[in-house]
């Protein structure tokens, strides 16, 4: 690594400082556009420590990629396309890349607000975490809130949150506070394989495993009071965060289309520096089918999180002996962070329709965008950025600079700095649980100690630093910070 004030080099990849927190890998060779990393000096050192920069540079070879490939402050090495990556490709002359969306289609987060305060929960943390763990399905394999039959799965894939409303699992307000109102109209259930549907039908309403979780939190800091008020957030408030995706169904959709791309578009694949970036040419039959299948999996993930939220409301009702409506358990927002969407953006003064791939990145539209729910159109989109189970999380709002800098995107979390294998060598799950409870008053319940070790706070980047960079760049503005009270994991 070279060390000049305005130049960095990691494993032969040169980055030049464009301005504070913006680093560029200049276009050279077969790169179609430059690449950009949004990071502080501290975060850049961590991002440069694995293959993230190589993967980001590889992404600039995608056909039709516009402006630049982008790595968010929480970026780290992924499958082909880096986690924390954003790449926008032309919908007519570009491509759509399952490898740039990832296996967990519409992995995302939602936050539910309440009128409870931390005083209402103190002394009842163990009761609450045990009740949540007993009633919200988690872990590998099957088991969900709903054991779906064929018609249910088809309905979920086609109609998303509309299905949940029809079946009594949601209220109208839930849909109004969900990205795209919880339904992608381009969904095509017929493009989803029967194997994928079979994998998903018994997982509706389940967290899964890995870094997915349900966490009860308290608001500890308010940075923008007017925005916080618009979001229904206040100091010392209890909120609930749900983080999960499309389970085995989404994974199977990605696997199915990666295999088909290898068979049907080997010529495009051969021109890419990494076959894990696998992409289908825009306008091709395969591209259209993947988009329809991906949108269906997106719908599945929104319903999955909705069912978990429904069950959480029921648990709170039993523990606190009040109706969820009386506790004002309302959905603040649900936002996806593994997705490709058709959006219109300004590229060099020209309005262009693009597939905006966000892999481990969150949409961050500022006030005024027509896609935003009416409740937030004048204030900006809520953004939810979870930290580790021993650190804070954040609610932001879409920043004024996001459209110009990042195709309306920001970070999605803290970002890992350590592999799961290494984490299990470094940490002992029971020790992590005990330390969190005794030192931080955070109560954690998981299917296994190994899961806790893999998700120990020390394996993640500093979420405060990630959010600071987002705020300084004006792509996602800090609204409130939260801190864990209790957490359940698969």
UniProtKB/TrEMBL annotation:
Q: Which PANTHER family match?
A: RNA-SPLICING LIGASE RTCB HOMOLOG
The record's comment on protein family reads:
Belongs to the RtcB family.
| Complex formation | Monomer.
Gene name of the encoded protein = rtcB
Q: Which reaction does it catalyse?
A: a 3'-end 3'-phospho-ribonucleotide-RNA + a 5'-end dephospho-ribonucleoside-RNA + GTP = a ribonucleotidyl-ribonucleotide-RNA + GMP + diphosphate; a 3'-end 2',3'-cyclophospho-ribonucleotide-RNA + a 5'-end dephospho-ribonucleoside-RNA + GTP + H2O = a ribonucleotidyl-ribonucleotide-RNA + GMP + diphosphate + H(+)
Name used for this protein in its record = tRNA-splicing ligase RtcB
Explain the purpose of this protein.
Answer: Essential for tRNA splicing and maturation. Acts by directly joining spliced tRNA halves to mature-sized tRNAs. Joins RNA with 2',3'-cyclic-phosphate or 3'-phosphate ends to RNA with 5'-hydroxy ends.
Binding annotation for Mn(2+) 2: 243, 337
TM regions (residue ranges): none
Please give the organism. Answer: Halopelagius longus
The cofactor note reads: Binds 2 manganese ions per subunit.
